[in-house]
Specification:
CATH superfamily of one domain in chain B: Folate-binding superfamily
Mean pLDDT of chain B: 92
CATH superfamily of chain A: Probable tRNA modification gtpase trme, domain 1
Number of strands of chain B: 6
Number of domains of chain A: 1
Bound molecules: zinc ion
Order of helices and strands of chain A: HEEHEEEHEEHEEEH
CATH architecture of one domain in chain B: 2-Layer Sandwich
Strand order of the largest sheet of chain A: 1-7-10-9-8
Mean pLDDT of chain A: 92
Largest interface: A-B, 13 and 13 residues
Number of strands of chain A: 10
CATH topology of chain A: Gyrase A, domain 2
CATH class of one domain in chain B: Alpha Beta
Structural class of chain B: mainly beta
Radius of gyration of chain B: 15 Å
Shape of chain A: elongated
Helix content of chain B: under 10%
Oligomer: heterodimer
CATH topology of one domain in chain B: Folate-binding fold
Order of helices and strands of chain B: EEEHEEE
Strand content of chain A: 35-45%
Helix content of chain A: 10-25%
Radius of gyration of chain A: 16 Å
Number of helices of chain A: 5
Largest sheet of chain A: 5 strands, antiparallel
Low-confidence stretches of chain A: none
Largest sheet of chain B: 4 strands, antiparallel
Strand content of chain B: 35-45%
Strand order of the largest sheet of chain B: 3-4-5-6
Shape of chain B: elongated
Distance between the termini of chain B: 15 Å
Distance between the termini of chain A: 35 Å
Chain lengths: 181, 97
């Protein structure tokens, strides 16, 4: 499905620090205990982190820890054949919830030397790499919007935003850039 | 900014959290067998502590989990946080500064 919310023109933050929309993705929220996490891994094709606030990335699949029994699974769109069926089969008989949230949110990438400075305009977390290293992810607040923030590189963040907040978040970061850069 | 130590995520900014009322309020096991007064007390009566108060918090904009905290209502200082189901740490523990 063409993601119209993210297709809106995003403000270019600066020549070196850039905000852009990432392509649509397949997203599932998986909830369940440790046995659910273990059972789902092979079907997802990616390790599912047990450690708090960590993400794993294997090829085109990612799994993000959102809570002690909650993970966000990300795969390409359209969903790879057999992903949903494989998950259902792997989780058969285990108490769990698996919800397709592919179109609930879309993803922005913020990259460049000012990325942390711009996020800090609206996010209260310590974004220094010592406190928020590469591979760390968490739900948090960015200004008035709840987002999932995932550091995929020293100067690169993936920001998962609920669709109706994409314009707000991107304009907020553009506004921050005008004040900072 | 006030940092609250989520038992799952570690120290996080206050604005990710939502207050959840007094902790350790036990629901009567057999509601039909308690008096109207006892049921009303369970529903509505809460302590109004001046000092260390055991209360529920939820890391709403983080891991989403409820947990318990011992907070001093006169200073807003969080003495301890602990998971639901765990006993409260001794309130007499020295206050870290
Ligand atoms: Zn938490």
């Amino acid at each position: 499905m063409r993601d119209l919310s993210a297709a809106r023109c995003l403000p270019l933050v600066s020549a070196s620090t850039v905000l852009h929309a990432l392509p649509p993705a397949t997203r599932y929220v998986l909830r369940g205990g440790a046995e659910v996490r273990a059972a789902a891994e092979s079907a997802v094709g990616c390790g599912i982190p047990a450690r708090a606030c960590r993400a794993t990335l294997e090829g085109d699949r990612a799994a993000l820890w959102l809570g002690p029994d909650e993970w966000l699974l990300i795969a390409p769109e359209p969903p790879p054949g057999g992903l949903a069926a494989g998950l259902s089969e792997a989780l058969e008989g285990l108490a769990h919830s698996l919800v397709d949230v592919s179109h609930r949110q879309s993803a922005l990438a913020l990259s460049g030397p000012q990325a942390t400075t711009l996020l800090a305009a609206g996010c209260p977390l310590d974004l220094d790499t010592s406190a928020f290293p590469v591979g760390m992810c968490t739900r948090t607040m960015l200004a008035k919007a709840e987002v999932v923030l995932w550091r995929t590189g020293p100067q690169v963040f993936r920001v998962e935003v609920w669709r109706s907040f994409v314009a707000y978040v991107s304009q907020f970061l553009g506004e921050a850039a005008r004040g900072i850069i | 900014m006030l940092l609250i130590d989520c038992p799952y995520c570690g120290e996080r900014p206050e604005l990710e959290f939502v207050y959840g009322g007094q902790a350790h309020v036990a629901r009567p096991a057999q509601p039909a067998q308690v008096s109207a007064q006892q049921w009303a007390d369970y529903l509505y009566r809460r302590d109004n502590t001046r000092g260390v108060h055991a209360e529920r918090w939820r890391h709403t904009h983080g891991c989403g989990r409820f947990f318990n905290a011992l907070r001093d209502t006169t200073t807003d200082h969080f003495r301890a946080t602990y998971k639901v189901g765990e006993p409260p740490p001794s309130a007499a523990a020295p206050v870290p500064r």
